[in-house]
Write a structure and sequence with these properties.
Elements (H helix, E strand, L loop, with lengths): L2 H13 L2 E8 L2 E8 L3 E8 L6 H14 L3 E6 L5 H10 L1 E4 L16 E4 L2 H11 L8 E3 L3 H6 L6 E8 L3 E10 L2
Parallel strand pairs: 3-4, 4-5, 7-9
Antiparallel strand pairs: 1-2, 2-3, 6-8, 8-9
Helix pairs in contact: 2-3
Length: about 180
Amino acid sequence: MSLEERKALNLLKLRGYKVIERTEQGKVISFLAGKRGRGKALIWCILDRIIGVAYIDRLRKAMKSSGVEDGIIVACNPYTFAAKRKARRYKIELIPRNFPTFDIFKHKLVPKHEVLPPKEKEILLKNYRVKCYQLPMIKSSDIVAVAIGAKPGDIIKVTRESPTAGKHISYRYVVPG
């Protein structure tokens, strides 16, 4: 099992997806995964040295043909600037090279993180009488934000266990980065 494949399987587990189908075509290992109430995702593990625009176009065509909304590319090699720009335009997620192959939430110092649903987000902002940008911020490129699939504009709920305060909940606003 390649490093890219381990990263992809770890990402799927962290986001709550179940693998439906695995295929291998040359330098691309493809996973079709599903999640209850959220639809399907197509994840490509690319074993090539440089990931360019051609892979983004191929993934987009594969997403259209299989009726999938979410596309994710996992690679241990660099993405070209044009590929990053095109992926942003087509809303294809590029997983960074430094994404871990293990479950980061198993570490005792990493608290539980979860993305708030829109209704809870609305209630939170109303109860605290704040705007989103007044909350502490976390970049969308942060490994934890990538792991749980947080997008700019989302609010992340962080739940910690404290020996003195008991259960402590804090919130982070996801900003581009």
